[in-house]
Amino acid sequence: METRFVPDHLILSVVTGSRAYGLETAESDVDRRGVFAVPTPLFWRLDKPPTHVEGPAPEQFSWEVERFCALALEANPTVLECLWSPLVEHVAPAGEDLLSIRRAFLSARARQTFTGYAAAQFRRLDPRRPKWKQAMHMIRLLVSGLHLAREGEPLVRMDEHRDRLLALRRGELSWAEVERWRAELSAAFDDLGDTGALPAAPDRRTVDDYLVSVRKALL
To answer: What is the C-alpha to C-alpha distance for residues 26 and 50, in angstroms, rounded to an integer?
Structure first.
């Protein structure tokens, strides 16, 4: 079964979602995301190992290390935030090495992915019957992405914005206020122009060297 790869070959496991953001309520699940490294000889077969595994715990999802690195190089917001989660539940030596090179994955492309993901969520919302939790996470994603563009790392903990975000989740903000907040964040992205803390391209050589070291260690 594919679930045997987790936890047997897990190199990193973190808590994500509302609990990592500091936005949890009494009903919030514990969302876990992880990275596993398949023993290298298993790739020599016609049937390849899985690129990801759901479970075995509820709300748990893990990527094989190569797939995780590919998504991180593409500036996938969910994957990048895993690397900065303040709630690390398990880390093996290969996971420590992965965290140590997390800045190698960053590039200016993250500005497009964070704003693009948020815009896609926004388009799904009906202002007449908004899903407030979804609206909250749309705004949170813009806040995280703006911090990344300015400071060079995503903002995971939302302590400074917590009260306002939770008020949004409870539906205590009008839709016009949500629109204004979104517009302010989008304008802040525009104000950065071509500047910011992100490099033009990720450091693929460092990531390649890391993957090679993992595969060699698992021969």
So the answer is: 34
Q: State the pLDDT confidence band at 190, using cuts at 50, 70 and 90.
A: confident
Tens digits of residue pLDDT in 66-118? 999 999 999 999 999 999 999 999 999 999 999 999 999 999 999 999 999 99
Per-residue 3-state assignment (H helix, E strand, C coil) for the chain: CHHHHHHHCEEEEEEEHHHHHCCCCCCCCCEEEEEECCCHHHHHCCCCCCCEEECCCCCEEEEEHHHHHHHHHCCCHHHHHHHCCCCEEEECHHHHHHHHCHHHHCCCHHHHHHHHHHHHHHHHCCCCCCCHHHHHHHHHHHHHHHHHHHHCCCCCCCHHHHHHHHHHHCCCCCHHHHHHHHHHHHHHHHHCCCCCCCCCCCCHHHHHHHHHHHHHHCC
In this structure, are 206 and 101 located in the same domain?
Answer: yes
| Structural domain containing residue 75 | 2-106+201-217
Instruction: Verify that 115 and 85 share a domain, yes or no.
Output: no
State yes or no: pLDDT of 218 exceeds 70: yes
- What is the share, in percent, of the chain residues with pLDDT greater than 70? 98
pTM > 0.85: yes or no: yes
User: Rounded to a whole number, what is the largest CA-CA distance in the chain?
Assistant: 57
